[in-house]
Amino acid sequence: MADVVAEVDLLVQDGSLALAETGVPGGGAVKETKELRLSGDVNDRFLDGPACRRIAIVDFEPATGLPSSPPATFTPFTSNPRSGKYVADGDETSATNIAINAFGTVFQTVRMFEGRDALGRRVDWAFGSEQLLVVPRAGEWANAFYERATRSLQFFSFVGESGARVHTALSRDIVAHECGHALLDAVAPSLYDSSTPQSVAIHESVADLVAVIMALDSRRLREAVLARSDNVLAGANAFTAIAEEFGMARPGADGIARHALRELENDETLETLSGARPHILSTLLSAIFYDTLNVVFAKLFQEAKLPDANGVTPTPAAAANKALGTAQIVFRRFLLRGIDYLPPGELSFADVGRATLAADRAARPAASEVRENFSHQFVKRLVVATAQELESPQPQSLAVPPDQVSSLHDSDWAAYQYATRHRSTLGLPDGVSFTVLPRVDSTKVIGAKGDDGVAPIQRELIVKIAWNDTEDSTGTVGGMRVVPTGATVVLKWDTGECLALVRSDVTGVEHRRDRDRLLAQLEEDGALATHDGADVGESVGLRSDGDSGLRASHRLLHLAGWDG
Amino acid sequence: MSDLVVRAYNVGFGDAILVSVPERTSRGKEKTRHLLFDVGNLLAGDGNDDAVFTGVVQDIADRTGGTVDLYVMTHEHLDHVQGLLAARRAGVDLAAKHAWLTGSAHPDYYTTHPDAKLKKRSLELALEDAHRIVQTAPDPWLEMMIRNNSTLLPPGALGLKTSDYVDHLRKIAPPDQTHYVDRTTDLAGKHPFSEATVRLLAPEEDTSSYYGRGGPTLTVAEADAGAAAATASEAPVGLSVPPVGVDPGAFFDLQAARRRNTRRQIMEIDQANNNTSVVLELEWRGWRLLFAGDAELKSWKTMHANGLEPAHFVKISHHGSHNGTYDDLFDELMPQQSPDGRERHALVSTHDGDWDSVPDADGTLSLYRPPRCTLHDTRTVARGASLEIRFAG
């Protein structure tokens, strides 16, 4: 069965701002045509909405708040009626255009996340059903969010300081960012109910970085940014300024106009951000990754500037564009594969570092230069004292015979036997019960295409084991707090050898102190749901009377949430 | 010497409290000043009974000669404002020499307070959303909340001229003696008392602090034409089934969540309105009486920050709801032992069967029990009758 395609025109960045000063022709609300592609699945197709099996637009009429008919029509091609296009109209802010832009950007973000240059597998949404709803006109609010309970991404609109209405669904950054939350929730669902500030911040950082990757995915935007920044990525530019239009439309809490919601390039350290709220804290981890992107790009740019086999030296612009195109692929693999290696439970920034390094080592054992720079950033920014703290073992005692890899994937019994047998190696405390999560089968591209046009791939089995630690909490709530924790084992499918063992480290005194502080901040701000009203289950609150860990702390990260 | 008398009427779910304060005149004689709080009841359930106001207001008029010295409208909830106009329509009129209305009821308040205006606008949209929801599917709780907060709805919605009730109260006293008050208001010359002293503990001048961070509304601000149309009697129609290809369960769950969010918003509107209550402290011959309207926790916290004094009498806020008494501050307001050995009293003006948790008999009302104080309850007297609490002069 051939792939099914839908053509759409998507905004390159925001509806009005990003390319305005770049000198690139057509600066302003620039669009580019994209092909949305469904693999040859006989049970999936594009429908009015837009909708397909895994993503669907649900639109609401702004005047009444009631659900409306699908705003965009799928027009089949005459030659191949399963494929076709969603045709935009002339009004940039029409229901049709907003819906197409939101759907197309979500679709492309999911495709990017699951492609063989990233996770190399399809993810299952954390809410347990197959379709993610996208609400492009959810109502009036300066906000957008992913919400597991309603299986949806919701994009609101508001009137900005200039008096113009801002539709968050028209911002490629915001849509990709919120979709990033949904995708991370699919891969690391335990982060949704985190009590550790760094854990909450990881969600935000990854969502920001997914937005960066989606920006890098646009050739037009790459060209524009390189032209504006004289072929360097350092300094403020369209990639570091997440949600540019949104940020300009909404002054910061101090009333001072801001350039964007968060600048990803910064010199913060864990010390300078001590006590910061998760939104702000996230910029530290984002900056570490962004610096890595810079390093990758700079190296590739130097190589791209050299004469080719015919002795022709490319122009700096051509070399930079080529280098950045490649850098985004390298960076995408680096970031997202690390996400797939994250242990279950609460996590620290150092855990992200460990998982990222382990995943990169598993795919590119020889390419240590980027990893060394990445580790150095963690040390420089005082996340860890030494780079050695970010190393994770590859204990071959965890290896299995090649013929047992499949059964370890398919059989819960085999998986629990495996975890029980390796309790000590995994770091499972004696007497503590544990859960082995559904195993993951992932096939990833691990190198450049060869002369035969085929890129090397690696199939991996990812096994995650989760258990709970407990601690006493302070604050007016007090009492006991459950701290979910865990480990990830990655085996090479073909050989059964152990590629990585990544254990989380969130039970230390500093993390407990941070959890206490976050709880105290929420109490002080009155941000914890009480049982006064209905639906406390959808609000940030305590997990239960006997557990002062947080529930739904992810809601603190709504685009303009706790931090305003 | 005459006693100061607090007289509380059973008007169903609402407040109607007359305080008669004997004062010595400069000639050494005694003259009683009458202070009236609110008069209204809830527009839902058994607690709603407009007929009760005729007798109640007639009794007040008989005791005051048809004019109270000071009328206080604590806040713009119908269970506090509708009684005087309802009685007037039945032929019983009552006037006032001075009238105090909560500051945010000033007709120009939202032009001079942009922050509050922004938050109010968001809540107005939520209220309109809620109105459409109850038009689509019956929801008694939501309908009652909409009616109680309907000063935010456009004129004509619900078939009520909601603002008429407040407008009537704007006119019961002479214009130059009608004041919109808050904690910062200079009260000199604005009240009739010469011996008693009064102090306002709430509301704050900028009421935006009583609102939360805001939240989403289902409709957008510019769609006023559609929103206005939706307030008409005919409910707008949306898709009743999900579009082809959309997961039906997710579609209906999403709509349910949107409705729940609107209910949360309405609850926030209600709380914010309660927190705009005028809270008045009256001191008279060593007695300190506190009339708290429907102030909720946010207002109590602010009052605490500004200085709360122990009282001999407390009109229990918000009809005995758990959110009208701040447990953590209770000892500050009414210490275990009376600081000066005087007796202490509390009054709850409430009604059963309208709200699940109001009054909160096992929690809030249990605080106001002997030996700390004597609890007086409007439910102990017949509908339209009053109870008296006396303070010796």
From TrEMBL, chain A:
SUPFAM superfamilies: Metalloproteases ('zincins'), catalytic domain
Protein name: Peptidase M4 domain-containing protein
From TrEMBL, chain B:
Record protein name field: MBL fold metallo-hydrolase
Record lineage: Bacteria, Bacillati, Actinomycetota, Actinomycetes, Propionibacteriales
Database matches in InterPro entries: Competence_DNA_uptake, RibonucZ/Hydroxyglut_hydro
Gene3D superfamilies cross-referenced by the UniProt entry: Ribonuclease Z/Hydroxyacylglutathione hydrolase-like
